[in-house]
Design goal:
Layout: H1 39-51, H2 54-61, H3 69-82, H4 85-98, H5 108-119, H6 123-131, H7 138-150, H8 154-167, H9 176-189, H10 192-205, H11 211-223, H12 227-237, H13 243-255, H14 259-271, H15 278-291, H16 294-307, H17 312-324, H18 328-337, H19 343-355, H20 359-371, H21 378-391, H22 394-406, H23 413-425, H24 429-438, H25 444-456, H26 460-472, H27 479-492, H28 495-507, H29 513-525, H30 529-538, H31 544-556, H32 560-572, H33 579-592, H34 595-607, H35 615-626, H36 630-639, H37 645-657, H38 661-673, H39 680-692, H40 696-708, H41 716-728, H42 732-740, H43 748-760, H44 764-777, H45 782-794, H46 798-810, E1 819-824, E2 827-832, H47 841-857, H48 873-881, H49 884-895, E3 902-906, H50 912-924, E4 929-932, E5 937-941, E6 944-945
Parallel strand pairs: 3-4
Antiparallel strand pairs: 1-2, 1-3, 4-5, 5-6
Helix pairs in contact: 1-2, 1-3, 2-3, 3-4, 3-5, 5-6, 5-7, 6-7, 7-8, 7-9, 8-9, 9-10, 9-11, 10-11, 11-12, 11-13, 12-13, 13-14, 13-15, 14-15, 15-16, 15-17, 16-17, 17-18, 17-19, 18-19, 19-20, 19-21, 20-21, 21-22, 21-23, 22-23, 23-24, 23-25, 24-25, 25-26, 25-27, 26-27, 27-28, 27-29, ...
Length: about 950
Amino acid sequence: MSVRLPGASKPATAMAALSLPPLPLRAPPAAAPAISPPHSASASLKRLCKEGDLRQALHQLTARAPPPREHYGWVLDLIAARRAAAEGRQVHAHALATGSLDEDDDGFLATKLVFMYGRCGRVDDARRLFDGMPARTVFSWNALVGSYLSSGSASEAVRVYRAMRASAAPGSAPDGCTLASVLKACGVEGDGRCGHEVHGLAVKSGLDKSTLVTNALIGMYAKCGMLDSALWVFEWLQEGRDVASWNSVITGCVQNGRTLEALELFRGMQNSGFGMNSYTAVGVLQVCADLALLNLGRELHSALLKCGSEFNIQFNALLVMYARCGRVDSALRVFRQIDEKDYISWNSMLSCYIQNGLYAEAIDFFGEMLKHGFQPDQACVVSLSSALGHLGWLNSGREVHAYAIKQRLHTDLQVANTLMDMYIKCGSIECSAKVFESMSIRDHISWTAILASFAQSYRHFEALEMFQEVQKQGIKVDSMMIGSILETCSGLKSLSLLKQVHSYAIRNGVLDLILKNRLIDIYGDCREVHHALNIFHTVEKKDIVTWTSMINCCANNGLLNEAVSLFAEMQKANIEPDSVALVSILVAIASLSSLTKGKQVHGFLIRRNFPIEGPVVSSLVDMYSGCGSMNYATRVFSGAKCKDVVLWTAMINATGMHGHGKQTIDLFERMIQTGLTPDHVCFLALLHACSHSKLVDEGKYYLDMMMSKYGLKPWQEHYACGVDILGRSGQTEEAYRFIESMPMEPKSAVWCALLGACRVHKNHDLAVVAANKLLELEPDNPGNYILVSNVFAEMGKWNSVKEIRIRMAERGLRKDPACSWIEIGNNVHTFTARDHSHRDSEAIHFKLAEITEKLNKEGYTEDTRFVLHDVSEEEKIDMLHKHSERLAIAFGLISTRPGTPLRIAKNLRVCGDCHEFTKLVSKMFEREIVVRDANRFHHFSGGSCSCGDFW
């Protein structure tokens, strides 16, 4: 008889067919009853199946017809284990031809076939066979449930279970195997509700006492995120626990992030006398990896070696554990010991290099993978792209991208996201954007990455457009996305946009601690200190970043005393300062010129054995020099073990600001001799020093060296220094020609330098040119208007002065008042011109009048040219007498012992008359007076100044 089977183009004999019939077909009855083969034949077939010799087993099965059903069962079990679908179809066809299925009254053979097809991934064939069965037992239902489960169709497995419950056929009530399979399906689907229902059925039917079922319950609850229920079932099981029970609960804890509990359970398992198997080892090794428990991981490694275990799954887990613990050498030894390396082994080792920052080594290892015939898969492309991104190897990254496209791997979401990240790290935002545009499916990571790339590459408007698209797409906005948009607000310095984003974050409940800290930073950048303070006060659990952000906010906005007070409050709150916080407070102290507080912080560093290196030691040098103490700055610099370019630059800048031009050049040359390469900032400090010390030729030489020898393209600030060097020496016309020769359009800093030089050297015509350029470039900078106004006042152009002040008023601009401050004891005292607010004001003004009278008797005469107001001569003299630095000097003289140095800071340039006044005071009272103004330091002693009257 001929039959048509699925896949056959024409009728064929059953034995020759290789495809499954759509329904169980009935073959003609055999001519004679089946005769059982001798016992030796059964033993031989059973032995062949046990040894896995499928070819000989098939040959022996088909040698006699019809064979007993148990022979079919043995061979089908072997086929299922091998997942050999083609051979399974042959056996099915043989059973049809011999009529064995006709005589399968209890469904034994059909069930075996359903099971076989399910294990071979032919779930549709299994279903068709199942549907054609005249009678179904619980074993048949279990086979079909298992088929769907093994093929990844967990939801279908649950549906089959529900159909089984609804059938109510005799002999088809769910047993322990059924419930275990269905519970596994519930775990895969994350359907805790269905799993709970199955649990109820298990209790009612008494199957909850089955270890198989309880183990499945533990696994189901754990996968559904109901770990407490899983632990309850485990505790209830008590005496019925086996190794699988312990493995299930340990794995469940690991899956739910409760690694410490997993570790405790593992110890309990050992104490209960249970030996671990492969699954236990893998689970506990994952705990070791998560918690970086290297010693425990080594213990497990030793135990596995003693057991002689050679399973790849354990070696791969060991490899991952060593990688996560930072032991690349141990991971590599484990990798070399694996005889049959699979994809997981190679990819795990590649990932190990990348996790530990060994990106170049990862590329070399990839070359080894290729030599061994390894074909890069999705995981490999992800790892390789990550390594190339960190290395910044754009061209190699493009090659990997091309390979991914060729192998159709680029459509994978994780691959595409990693390629985007790789291009961002390589600085190719355009390529990253193209990858994003080509993605048919984008997840939250994709949108977050593209937002961050635009924000960090200063493409702020594109970032805003992308953020609007995110909202249109209905994608949930999280704190990382808000963080990127805050970067855009910072870049644009847009207060209105910042407030909108702030409000959006509050409304959507994504304002976490990280965002609050960033908001404090950006409000500070926008000079909105009160908004930053409001956020600061709302943070209940302030971390070190919160305090540091607020300290920086105050310091950068001139609230220096407030910054110092915050640092003290932070210590009272038992927040241990880190290097960033210490650098921030040292910067504030340097601006405040508070030597006492600076020493206190330095002492704190020493007491806590804080490493005085890197940014900290550079900040100490800046602080001491900013407080006028070059001796301490030099001692800190000399004591530093490792001097980098930043530290040398800090010392060069310090000596230059104190007027030691020749010493500054000597420092620079010493730095060059150590083999360090100066950068833009270093040259800027050097040029400033040349400017302050009237070293014109040296300044020209080093500006040329910067470009010719080191290939550094000057910034606007370097050109401004060049103008300042020429202008201060009186070469204002040459300075103007220097500006005209610049390869770029000069900005305000350059014209400001020229205007200052023209003011000093009375080049009024050129001053007008510079003034007009300055106001044109920065029409909203009040400092520029004051400078221009002062220049016109010195020229006697009072109408022009009046016009400038009217323009300021129309723009709502205000002049920062002249302010000086002095540190006495542990307090900083601040004075403004004609100040009477100090508690010792009467004594201060009396002392100042006394000083002035004594100086007048010694021949001192007020130089009223420095009073830039159109008032009477008497009023000009009175104004000079009340300048803020004179009030600070007077207070210092009455508040300190004779001979004590006075250190004063001023926010503006010291005028010529006050400079002369301070020289005479230093001689008359035999005091060293250190004054830091907006330009530089002045060390007054014995009637002379370190600046040589050049500032």
